[in-house]
Amino acid sequence: MPELPEVETTLRGIQPYLLHRPIEELVIRNGSLRWPIPPALPRIVRGQSIDSLKRRGKYILAGLDRGTLIMHLGMSGSLRMAEGASAPRKHDHYDLVLKEDSRRLRFHDPRRFGCLLWTESAAEDHPLLANLGPEPLEEEFDGESLFRRSRGRTQAVKTFIMDSRIVVGVGNIYASESLFVAGIAPERAAGDITVSDYQRLAEAIRAVLSASIRQGGTTLRDFVNESGAPGYFRQQLNVYDRAGEPCRRCGSPIQNARLGQRSTFWCAECQR
């Protein structure tokens, strides 16, 4: 599943081709995504310019003259720039075609859990975005905020930081990796963790996500084709998907269990 670093890498890759460009047309081949693409959307966006592009959580928001396109990659989706003459493949569900050179933003999604929605109200007020927590790479996210939100909570700290209402974009891979860097066992109750531990954890989340974005930027250089692969699959993971292998720090075998219905990996010696 695409995580925050892949979405951020995608945003940075497509931004130079889309920003301040007018839209020629929206071509919909299959509008039956997680939520149906509004049938009137091609008429609505035709002729509008893309004034802004930003990420909120795992959503990409394209601000147009009179509203905002809300895009999500779902579980298997990708957004790439395609040349006008390139034939669509199976599972290429829509093209956002630009004026002048006919390049297009093409959405590919075999499982069809992505979305393309429209709002004329403030994007932040949309039901999909209104209850999202702070961005982990922005100043408002810190250990103090995690500590305050965790008081009285008995849930495991791993599931706590994966809650998008607490902080956005900390998926399963990055939760395991961040807890390892911070030295915190994933099953500990969120409400029992100290403010100093949360300060280390906030710094670890920021560092792990930033490192993954940097690597994604290296491996996803070319956005004028459809052959990119998620950068985070290539990073040197410390614990995730390494059950039974020696810890890179102490040599103890990496543990694996189900926590909150997700596979969880940790070092029992390094994480307390």
Classify the fold: give the CATH topology of the largest domain.
Helicase, Ruva Protein, domain 3
- N-to-C span: 29 Å
The string of secondary-structure elements, in order, is HEHEEEEEEEHHHHEE
Principal-axis shape? elongated
Q: Return Rg in Å.
A: 20 Å
Query: Roughly what is the average pLDDT, rounded to an integer?
Result: 92
How much β-strand is present in the residues? 15-25%
- Structural class of the secondary elements? alpha+beta
When the domains are counted, the total is 2
Which class of the largest domain in CATH terms? Mainly Alpha
Strand order of the largest sheet: 1-6-7-5
**Strands, count:** 10
Low-confidence stretches: 217-221, 223-227
Please give the share of residues in helix.
Answer: 25-40%
Number of helical elements:
6
Largest sheet: 4 strands, antiparallel
> What's the architecture of the largest domain, going by CATH?
Orthogonal Bundle
Report on the structure:
This protein has helices at 4-18, 41-45, 143-150, 157-161, 172-182, 195-219, and strands at residues 23-28, 52-56, 59-64, 67-72, 78-82, 92-98, 104-108, 115-119, 255-259, 262-266. The protein is of the alpha+beta class and 272 residues long. The protein folds into two domains: 4-125, N-terminal domain of MutM-like DNA repair proteins (Alpha-Beta Barrel); 143-266, Orthogonal Bundle (Helicase, Ruva Protein, domain 3). The chain is elongated. The relative contact order is 0.15. Residues 217-221 and 223-227 have low confidence and may be disordered.
